[in-house]
Amino acid sequence: MDFNYWGSICMAVFITLWLTDRRRFLNGYFLIAALAFFVAAVWQWLEVTQEPWMQAFLLIVSLAFTGLVPIGLALFAVACTLYSHRLIRASGRKPGYFLLESVGVLILGTLFFTFLNALFIHSELIWTLLGLVYLWLLYLAFGFLSYAAASLLDELPVAYNVDFIVVLGAGLLPNGQVSKILQQRLDKGLSLYRRQEKWGAHPKFVVSGGQGADEIMAESQAMSYYLQENGIRPEQIIQENKSTSTYENLKNSQVIMTKAKIFHRAIFVTNSFHVFRAGIIAKQLNSTMTGVSAPTSIYYLPFAAFREYLALVVMFKWINGGALTVLTVGYLISRLFIY
Q1: Residue 215 — left, alpha, or beta (φ > 0 → left; ψ -120 to 50 → alpha)?
Q2: Could you tell me the pTM of the whole model?
Q3: How many CA atoms lie within 13 A of 26 on its CB side?
Q4: CATH class as words, domain 164-297
Q5: Where do you find CATH 3.40.50.620 in the chain?
Q6: CA distance 296 to 192
Q7: How does pLDDT run across 35-60, given as a tens digit for each residue?
Q8: β-pair type (290-294, 204-208)
Q9: Angle, helices 246-260/275-284, rounded to nearest 10 degrees
Q10: Do residues 25 and 147 make contact, with C-beta atoms less than 8 angstroms apart?
Q11: Distance CA 249, CA 226 (A)
């Protein structure tokens, strides 16, 4: 198999897709696939080398990889469980935190039954079921890497003048002050505003967020107060105070901006883990908005990225469900009728 050929094809498709619209989930898939093919091509090239030292090196790498994969999986599973407990202690019992722990328990259970079956049971049925679980985990891991790659590629800076800077809401503290995550978004919006001013532009802020059941005011109101405290004039701020989700944030903001200026250029600001999914939603709304990412506290980033990826899986549930069904059927056919 010519891995270089397929790697080049995937890279060409990635570059074409990304240059036409970086708000595509497929961008990350083709980039990761291209890199995987190129790595396989290098490995293939090294394998044909007849030098004894090279053959010994490849053997050592193969053995190390074989041993490191289960160790890495086990460490990742333990990290998921411990991190979930940390979030529960810090922020209370939320379904998403338990889901993260469930992933860790599933991986640990899979590894446990793998070693148990290898050492004691030796059941072909268990091997078949374990192989299926590993196939699903591999699919989800590949998808997560693709999401991470697409998110990083979506963080390139904006190099043009805009008419509006949309800041997406993210919850308030009990006293009505902006939360840490929301402050990060607002600070990034302020940084973009100052840069736009240097270029001669005077964009308006659209602060988007309604009032939650546990909030004493609309998020947009608190965001407006924060911007004014940091030197933004009230007439430069437009409040959108009805939305309760990212979809509504972007949809309602788009309506407001279109009424103010039919043909406009706008960007939205959200946290790094969220910018890619928000960009996909903006695309589904036929908006030309692209996202700019604000930094995220390192302790919160792993869970946030995991949650965002699961949200993307659900967003494309029919595609992911179809892909997993095809993989499952193909795997079972190969196990039952070929091997």
Answers
A1: beta
A2: 0.83
A3: 13
A4: alpha beta
A5: 164-297
A6: 17
A7: 999 999 998 888 887 678 777 888 88
A8: unpaired
A9: 60
A10: yes
A11: 19
